[in-house]
Every structure is written in C-alpha cells, then in structure tokens.
UniProtKB/TrEMBL annotation:
Similarity comment text for this entry: Belongs to the pseudouridine synthase RluA family.
Pfam families given in the database record: PseudoU_synth_2 (PF00849)
Entries under Gene3D superfamilies matching the protein: Pseudouridine synthase (3.30.2350.10)
The keyword tRNA processing appears for this protein: yes
EC annotation from Swiss-Prot or TrEMBL: 5.4.99.28, 5.4.99.29
Keywords attached to this entry: Isomerase, rRNA processing, tRNA processing
Source organism (scientific name): Marinobacterium sediminicola
Known catalytic reactions: uridine(32) in tRNA = pseudouridine(32) in tRNA; uridine(746) in 23S rRNA = pseudouridine(746) in 23S rRNA
PROSITE patterns registered for this protein in UniProt: PSI_RLU
Protein name as it appears in the record: Dual-specificity RNA pseudouridine synthase RluA
Free-text function comment from the UniProt entry: Dual specificity enzyme that catalyzes the synthesis of pseudouridine from uracil-746 in 23S ribosomal RNA and from uracil-32 in the anticodon stem and loop of transfer RNAs.
Length: 206
C-alpha cells in the first residue's frame, strides 16, 4: 500500500512503492495501481502526475476538479520542485552538472525512450553527487522538465545508468538490485487553494 504523507480537503500526498503502476495499464493484470488504491480511502482522488512503475516516491493527487486543474497548470508551468535520489553505475568525473538532451519514444522498443536531437522534445536534468563507492555513486537528480524515463535515459547517456534499470543499464548493474534504485524523495508545490508553498519528503528506502 502507498505511504500516506499528507492530506486535507483538497489534496493527498503519498509515497508510491516500487513496482506499482501509477495509473491502470492495458489488460486485466494491470488494473491494480496507486490511483485506485488511493481512491479506496479518498474516492474523489485524481492523478496529477505519474512515476514510472519501477520508481518509488512522492506523488500528489487532487481531490476535486478545481484542485486538479490548479495542480495540472502548476506542473505544466514547471512550478513544483522535484528531487530524486538514485544510485548510478560508476563514479562521475564531476561533482555536479546539467544534462540537456532531447528525448522521444523509441517506437520500435516501447516504452523505451531515446535521445534524438532532431525529433526529440527538450529535456533538462540537474544532478549532483552525494557519495561515491567503489563502482557506483549516490546522486541527487532534479528534473527541470518531466519527460517519460527522463532521469533514466539521461543517466544512461552520461555513461552512468541507474542501478537495477532493466531498460537502460547493463550487467552487472541490472542484477545488482532487485529494483530500480530511483526514489522521488522531495516534492514542493503551491497549495491549490491557499497558495501556500508546501514541501514534502519521503526517506530514500535504499
């Protein structure tokens, strides 16, 4: 079940476990998802944004059409702040940086995404190294844009795929973890009714 971080009459903030879909997929076997689980407790809950099935961490849901509209506009305008924690293969030569590589769907290998300087949509990720180990590093990742698989593809393109990534890593880093080591640990957003800035955090589970 999701971990409930905060709720009021307008919003609910939860931390999604890894392996759970954000919304239903195609087929009877893909109907269980975070949104439906939250609706069991908050029947009017509406999804505002998503996380990959393999990613854990913070999501905000709206409890009315009005708050859903407000939050959706905030995300479109890139107002919310998001920070992820990840463990990546190898040790980067720099301590921090910005990745600007346009992305698009790899139509022959969906749902994989690829870098495409011609047809890709702009994608920007800021990153910084927290800690280094012998053959891997712990990093903070802050997506400025919100493209599908953005953090995963950007880390791969940098030469440091996320450990446990079944799509973009290679051995031995795929089997080094039984899950994708990517967690949405911080979310900042304006309350859709009061306008107050609110910060939410979820401890990294790895």
């Amino acid at each position: 079940m999701p971990d409930y971080i905060y709720s009021d009459d307008s919003i609910v903030v939860v931390s999604k476990p890894a392996g759970l879909l954000s919304v239903p997929g195609r087929g009877e076997d893909k109907q269980d998802c975070l949104w439906r689980r939250v609706q069991q407790r908050f029947p009017t809950a509406r999804i505002v944004h998503r996380l990959d099935q393999a990613t854990s961490g913070l999501l905000i849901l709206a409890l009315s059409a009005e708050t859903h509209r407000n939050l959706s506009i905030q995300f479109q305008q890139r107002i919310p702040t998001k920070r992820y924690q990840a463990i990546i293969a190898g040790v980067p030569q720099q301590d921090s940086g910005r990745i600007e590589l346009p992305l698009r769907c790899d139509w022959d290998n969906r749902p994989r995404q690829i870098v495409d300087s011609i047809d890709g949509k702009p994608a920007i990720t800021d990153w910084s190294c927290i800690e280094t180990y012998q053959d891997r590093s712990r990093v903070h990742l802050s997506p400025i844009t919100g493209r599908s698989h953005q953090l995963r593809v950007h880390m791969q393109a940098m030469g440091h795929p996320i450990v446990g990534d079944q799509f973009y890593a290679c051995e031995p880093f795929i089997s080094a973890s039984d899950r994708l080591l990517l967690h949405a640990e911080h979310l900042g957003v304006r309350h859709p009714i009061s306008g107050e800035w609110m910060d939410f955090d979820s401890s990294c589970p790895f």
